[in-house]
Design brief:
The complex is a heterodimer of chains A (95) and B (301). Chain A has four helices and no strands. Chain A is an all-alpha fold. Chain A has one domain. The radius of gyration of chain A is 21 Å and the shape is elongated. Chain B has a domain of 200 residues: 3-Layer(aba) Sandwich (Rossmann fold). Chain B is α/β, with parallel strands linked by helices and 301 residues long. In chain B, α8 links the parallel β6 and β7. In chain B, α3 runs antiparallel to α4 and α5 crosses α6. Classes of the chains: A mainly alpha (95), B alpha/beta (301). The interface between A and B is large, with 30 and 41 residues.
Chain lengths: 95, 301
């Protein structure tokens, strides 16, 4: 293999590594957004359990069997609710 | 639900004679040879006293072509909550289900459960008695009845918004899966299935309520001021749900009373008059005698 080919191969693998890292970072942010959207959905449907305005009870009760994850997430959010900034900072890897 | 079965609802202020008017209508129609089911949705359950027969959830034959049943709201609430609880126990981990159990004891007292119990009963009845020509519903007092009629529209407002948000979530999840794994295939979302199922169920009920050939909403009132003002409120509220009065029934009518006031107040021409009776209308024989003395010419059913 010529030196030129070796350099090209190094550049390619370096680019691939960088591309994967960038993709992972982008996906991390999107996953955070997704978890926030799921959290909002959970709060909208299950709000009655923590004193928020909520849809007619039968809508909540009908969806509850499929919403264990949301229920746990909602309770977990109560723990982190006092420090939303630190939660956000850890996602964007600041500092 | 059979396309031929007609549903007739009787509503009005407490004490105006919803139960008597619905009993008379049920008897009148069965006398015409129509196959009729009379359903008491009112927790006060006056139909048992009117027909002098103990009614229950199980239909009771009153005469040829006429059966009647009473809805026990608590039975429907209990049945519904038990179903949800067993689904939760089936799909949740032990600890989460245990946490939720604490809430279930109080859910039966939540606002909205009573009208949902009535909607469930309505669904079950209209599905089970498709062979009937008429199903006549003697409705509860105004507040609960209006909530019953408003529930499909209110639920659809919420469900549409929840569906929009769910669709956004799914779209985002698809993008993430595609970036991460290079494929768009994701697990079918059970929540969206349930939302769609609820939407189609409420759309069906709303359509049935709005179909003037299928559903008649009969407003019962007395020739007095209090009854007029509550009836006006009922008409206004029903309009907000895109529902309209089919017949106005003036119960305890007396000849000195001019029906022009009703025509003017409610912008409704032609009404069914049930004149005040000298004898109490109790028992099938008294009801039949009364029917023989009344004109049903203006009754659109």
């Amino acid at each position: 293999m010529s030196i030129f080919s070796k350099i090209l191969s190094k550049i390619k693998s370096g680019w691939k590594y960088y591309d994967n890292a960038a993709k992972e970072k982008a996906v991390d942010v999107m996953e955070y957004e997704l978890s926030e959207m799921e959290n909002i959905f959970g709060l909208l449907v299950l709000g009655a359990f923590i004193g928020l305005p909520s849809p007619p009870m039968q809508i909540t009760l009908d969806l509850i069997p499929e919403m264990e994850k949301h229920f746990i997430q909602m309770l977990h959010k109560v723990d982190t609710a006092e420090s939303p900034i630190s939660d956000l900072v850890s996602i964007f890897d600041v500092g | 639900m059979s396309a031929n079965t007609k549903n007739i609802f009787f509503l009005g202020k407490g004490g105006v004679g919803k139960s008597t008017s619905s009993a008379l209508t049920a008897l009148y129609l069965s006398n015409l040879g129509k196959d009729v089911l009379l359903v008491s949705m009112d927790p006060a359950h006056n139909q048992s006293d009117i027909f002098e027969i103990q009614l229950s959830e199980k239909p009771v034959k009153l005469k040829d072509n006429l059966i009647a049943k009473e809805i026990d709201i608590n039975f429907w609430i209990k049945k519904y909550l038990n179903d949800v609880e067993s689904q939760i126990k089936h799909s949740y981990s032990y600890l989460t289900a245990l946490n939720l159990e604490n809430y279930f004891g109080i859910i039966k007292y939540s606002p909205g459960i009573e009208e949902y119990a009535l909607i469930s009963a309505y669904n079950e009845i209209t599905e089970s008695f498709q062979e009937k020509d008429y199903i006549i519903f003697d409705m509860p007092p105004t507040a609960l009845t209006l909530k019953f009629f408003g529930l499909p529209k209110l639920s659809l407002l919420w469900l549409d918004k929840l569906l929009d948000l769910r669709n956004e979530i799914i779209k985002k999840r698809e993008i993430i899966t595609k970036v991460k794994f290079g494929t768009k295939e994701i697990e079918r979302d059970k929540i969206i299935n349930k939302l769609n199922k609820q939407i189609s169920s409420y759309e069906k009920i709303k359509k049935e309520f709005e179909d003037k050939d299928k559903t008649k909403i009969n407003l019962v009132l007395n020739p007095d001021k209090l009854s007029f003002s509550e009836s006006g409120l009922i008409v206004k509220k029903l309009r907000e749900f895109d529902l309209y009065i089919g017949n106005i029934i003036v119960n305890k009518y007396f000849p000195e009373f001019s029906v022009d006031q009703i025509e003017k107040n409610f912008n409704h021409t032609g009404m069914q008059l049930f004149p005040i009776s000298e004898k109490p209308l109790l028992g099938i024989n008294e009801l039949q005698k009364y029917i023989g003395s009344v004109s049903f010419e203006n009754y659109s059913i």
